[in-house]
Specification:
- The protein is an alpha/beta fold and 416 residues long.
- The protein contains 14 helices and 17 strands.
- A hairpin with a 5-residue loop joins strand 2 and strand 3 (62-63).
- Helix 2 packs across helix 3 (118-125) and helix 5 runs parallel beside helix 6.
- The longest helix has 27 residues, at 290-316.
- The model has no long low-confidence stretch (mean pLDDT 95).
- Ligand DWN is lined by residues 78, 82-83, 177, 224-225, 254, 325-329, 349-351, 354, 384, 386-387, 390-391, 394.
């Protein structure tokens, strides 16, 4: 029985380490040629930490321990603007915010972890006042270039007070795929309590634990993705701060997410909270049972076996295989399965910040997508499987030339 840890959401210690994935480098720590050279010459260690997937059997949180250095996000390589899906998603979210939660022109939306400002630009475009909070200097500049006002520091209980002193309270606080990167959720919530107007709304977008379990999305766990939330884990967390969930919307993005809106309990009704029905669904899905996670571990090991066998057979037939997408999740999969340049000759990715770099751990070169037409692989392993439709649509020329796709989750399969 491994040592139990305290759950960062509900603070109970009924946790279960069900899936040790090995020692992994940080999933977004894409290496420059210089860094790779120093590693190869043993001048520099590529830092790795145990990637142990843990479940809280009380609130359903799927979590990893926080092990990354404190300043990890001061230079960041992920931006959502590389995806048409995400551009459409944030435009729709901006309209939803204005129609449901904004009542006055002076009402401000504060987006914590605003990244390159995609959501706040969409809010500004429809006349909503905004402020972005983004600690990564390189990404903050991209947001500023879109005309988005930025507070370039981490959001904490302390910085929340300074933000409120300078810009006033927020009518809406949003945080999309940031809450799952935060270790001190209670400190973050103290900041929300400070910054949010009394009648304000706190809106979180995060991947769902129920989808992680049902679709065996083991690769969505990495050192920066500290948590994958169940509705119950959010409800238990909010209880500490007298917030109540008032709306839950399932979202198809990032492998199955949810948009959860919460308000202070004196502006909400616990009895009619949608959380009640969702938590019942989570209970029926076995999110609070050890056996559920034993089954996830077994399915994960089967995905590894089946994917390696599929790739070995194709290579045995003389087929050439490359990867499409260099997502953070792809590095969990590549490092867990031991898939390196001996199998995938390159990873094609549209994000220019990653071009010329190498994947952490397996050191596969990352190149622009036009390399596909030059190298003509027979198969593309889609590591950004959450965008498989968009990617296959884009790569119609590859399919027309006889190329086929491999999608690894929830089971490795060939498409095309
Ligand atoms: O929370 C996070 C999620 C939201 O995004 C971050 N911690 C890190 C990141 O995770 P990821 O890197 O796994 O996210 P994506 O958005 O699944 O990565 C997609 C990758 O694929 C990007 O590098 C862009 C690339 N891409 C592409 O090359 N062509 C994406 C699309 C849609 C394309 O057509």
């Amino acid at each position: 029985m491994t040592e139990q840890i305290q759950c960062r959401a509900c603070k109970k210690t009924n946790t279960y380490l069900f899936l040790p994935l090995g020692d992994h480098p940080a999933a977004n720590a894409f290496l420059t040629p210089q860094q790779l050279k120093q590693i190869k010459q043993q001048e520099q260690q590529e830092q790795r930490w145990p990637l142990d997937t843990i479940a809280c059997l009380d609130c359903g949180l799927v979590l990893v321990k926080d092990q990354l250095p404190a300043d990890f996000f001061t230079e960041y390589l992920y931006v959502p603007s590389g995806s048409e899906t995400m551009k459409r998603h944030f435009a729709s979210f901006a309209n939803d915010i204005r129609s449901r939660w904004i009542t006055d022109k002076s009402d401000r939306v504060v987006d914590i972890g605003c990244n390159d400002g995609l959501l706040l630009k969409a809010c500004n475009d429809i006349g909503v006042a905004t402020l972005g909070i983004e600690p990564a200097a390189n990404i903050a500049e991209m947001a500023r270039a879109k005309g988005v006002e930025i507070f370039n520091e981490y959001f904490t209980a302390e910085s929340a007070q300074r933000i409120r002193d300078k810009w006033g309270s927020a009518k809406v606080i949003t945080t999309t795929n940031t809450f799952n990167h935060v270790d001190d959720l209670h400190g973050f919530m103290r900041g929300v309590v400070t910054l949010l107007a009394d009648d304000g709304t706190f809106i979180i977008e995060v991947p769902q634990a129920i989808t992680y379990v049902e679709m065996t999305e083991f690769d969505t766990v990495y050192h920066e993705h500290l948590s994958t939330f169940a509705v119950k884990s959010l409800a238990d967390l909010f209880d500490f701060f007298d917030f109540t969930i008032v709306d839950i919307q399932p979202l198809p993005i990032h492998g199955g997410s949810m948009r959860v809106s919460a308000r202070r309990t004196h502006f909400a009704s616990k009895e009619s909270s949608p959380a009640i029905e969702w938590i019942e669904r989570e209970r029926k899905a076995g999110l609070f049972d050890r056996a559920t996670y034993d089954a996830v571990a077994k399915r994960t090991q089967k995905i590894r076996r089946d994917l390696l066998a599929l790739l070995a057979n194709l290579m045995g037939d003389g087929k050439k295989i490359a990867g499409y997408g260099a997502p953070a999740k792809g590095n969990t999969l590549l490092n867990y399965c031991g898939i390196g340049p001996h199998i995938l000759s390159f990873l094609a990715d549209r994000n220019e910040l990653k071009h010329g770099r190498y994947s952490p751990g397996m050191h596969i070169p990352i190149v622009p997508p036009d390399r596909i037409a030059e190298e003509k692989p027979d198969y593309l392993l889609i590591l950004a499987w959450n965008f498989a439709d968009e990617i296959m649509e884009q790569q119609k020329a590859f399919s027309a030339a006889g190329g086929k796709f491999i999608v690894p989750i929830p089971e490795p399969r060939i498409i095309g």
